[in-house]
Amino acid sequence: MLAFGLVFATLAGCDSDEGDGTRAEPAGQPSDRRQSTTEDGSAAARGPVRLLRLGRFDAPTFLGAPRGDRRRFVVQRGGTIVVLHGGRQLDEPFLDVSTNVSTDGEGGLLSMAFAPDYQRSGRFYVYYTDREGYLQIDQFTRSDDPDRADPESRRSVIRVPHFRSNHKGGQLQFGPDGMLYAGFGDGGSGGDPDENAQNLGRILGKLIRIDPRPGGGYDVPASNPFVGRSGARGEIYAYGLRNPYRFSFDRSRGSLNIGDVGQDEVEEIDYVPGRSGGRQPRGGYNFGWDVFEGRDRYEPGSAPGDVPPVIAHRQSAGFCSIIGGYVIRDPSLRGTRYAGRYVYGDLCNPDLRLAVLKRPRASTRPSGLRVSNLVSFGEDGQGRVYAVSIDGPIYRIGRG
User: Domain residues of the chain, as ranges?
Assistant: First the structure.
């Protein structure tokens, strides 16, 4: 596995520009030419699906927005978040925590998430590596200016000791239940030398589920799967993960979708269907690392209740670091082969891929769209999906 840190370290910083959000990539990007009518009925809305460049940023790592909001918030690795109105990037950042952020190895400001009641509370959360390399999740609130956060509102939610430069995790996501989920890597190096991922007494190599308190810190939901189990951390929602750098919930059906970065052989996508009414899965899943890498045995031992991946790509086929994405629910893409498909990619293989997620195995194929040095996908407040390159560009998967 090629560490993200190697790519971060070798890429020069890129200047931002004001992408208009509708500029298509040059000819040669294959696309879906089937048509359907959308609400605005415009020619662009009925056009082929392609990559529409939003803009160019300074080592972007993520894009997000509150539900229903038309702005887009771009997270930049060095510690800033910028706001876009339409295609115009505002001059002042929404938030600047660069003095708190370390970009060593695979570190940096890696993602953000808005509280489900953001329009009322103004609360949002950021995930970064601090100056000691520890994993830090902070809460902030917006200021009286809706395009600026209040830097004095910072409250620490959780800080997790992490002593190596890799496997920092990085994703924050509010689930359908309104709880905050975060993905932590296994502690780094290779082969999980600390045996964290299978140890329910440790928080590394896990997805956690917590209920942040408005004043900082968090509560552990009583419905978490390991609450009350002797020796287990109550925060844990799922375990047996190596580096769940990007994960998501299907905004329509509630399924859990995880891109777990592999060791030396296999990159994997893990999937658990949602429950009725679009609810998230119950939790308690063991995804097998470090007893298994993908479906392959990695080392002796047991992984109770192991849930194998639905997609596994060999590094020998050109994959190196899987980048989990989203199930596409963009209303403007209804009637195309993208609608309802899970889009994901890889840091080394530029093909964006589409999958029909199901157990025990999912079908997958290249979409025809390509992004070099992919580090993330993002979803805006309208349900539109974006691909983020650490080189600087961010693209919307749309019609144009």
Answer: 17-56+332-400
